[in-house]
Amino acid sequence: MKIFSGQASPVQLQWLLWGFVFLINFISMLPMDGVVQAGAFTAISTAFYAIIIYGNIHFLLPVFYKRGQLMPYVLASVFFLALIGIARSYLSQYIYNQYFSKEYLPITTKSIIYVSAACVVIYVLSFIFRFALDYFKLKRQAEEMIAEKSLAELNLLKSQVQPHFLFNTLNNIYYEAYKEAPRTAMLIERLSEIMRYFVDESPREEVTLGTEIQFLENYIALERIRIRHEISITFIQNCRKEASIPPMLLMTFVENIFKHGIDKSNPENAVTISLVQENGYLLFQTQNLLHDKQTVTGQSGFGIRNLHKRLSLLFGSNYELSAQPAGKYFNASLKIPLQ
């Protein structure tokens, strides 16, 4: 089956995606919960993710938004997410108490709010899911039209997928969420800023340090909600934010911290990020505690190798990059010239 060619059907692509989502969730839960419990809660989570995404794509959007009923759409979405959040919370707590807990644990308002906030994030991602489906559909149509040499219709199809719909919808959801759940609204705002960065800033040759720092802070804020325990993160910034650097250079280290440097079952995770400007260079350093489950890839990791190649193209040999363990810590460092 040609998964990434124009021959794969949208249904096949969706099954592949849901299988991937199930596998990632199962692997992340497995070390803490065991095979049976991880499988049960992964199945519940994946099922509710599907309900949220397909409920929005196949019901809320066609019934309300496409008919120009914006306010009913927002209200119906809020009610839908609240209902899903409550149902998922009670179902998960019931199964946990019935089969896995040694003593009865009552459901709390805090847990319902937490699950509902996660539902909001999945709801926002449903728009990306919708755009992905549209993209593959348009790609198939475009290939057929190229064969027919219909360039005018091809350009029309390409223009149908626009990011403005997503950003406008995110703004509407943000204002509605702000009234009831300011923290959830803040997360939606950060997600919107990250997506704007990818659309508007990442294609550029250079961005300001201030823009890159804001992108990192938004990414860190969204990653925090996936971690069960609070993480101590110190972000030192001693640099001129008007200076320019190529985009996405600093992301690799921060992404690796959340992928490999955080023990989700340990309440004592400490991370230090430092961004210092000195003598015409920018020094970016990260440090996190090593833990038993962490895979120490050093400088051989895929992301680090790609970063090496990009730095060589950008700066030749005028840069320094290291990533290695030191005692009980894992340290990463990048030094590049500033424009």
UniProtKB/TrEMBL annotation:
Keyword flag Transmembrane: yes
Residue stretches in coiled coil: none
InterPro entries found in the cross-reference section: Bact_2-comp_sensor_kinase (IPR050640), HATPase_C_sf (IPR036890), Sig_transdc_His_kin_internal (IPR010559)
Organism this protein belongs to: Chitinophaga rupis
GO molecular function, one term: phosphorelay sensor kinase activity
Transmembrane portions of the chain: 12-32, 38-61, 73-91, 111-133
Protein name: Histidine kinase
Signal transduction histidine kinase internal region domain segment(s): 152-229
Keyword Membrane tagged: yes
One cellular-component annotation, GO: membrane
Keywords: Kinase, Membrane, Transferase, Transmembrane, Transmembrane helix
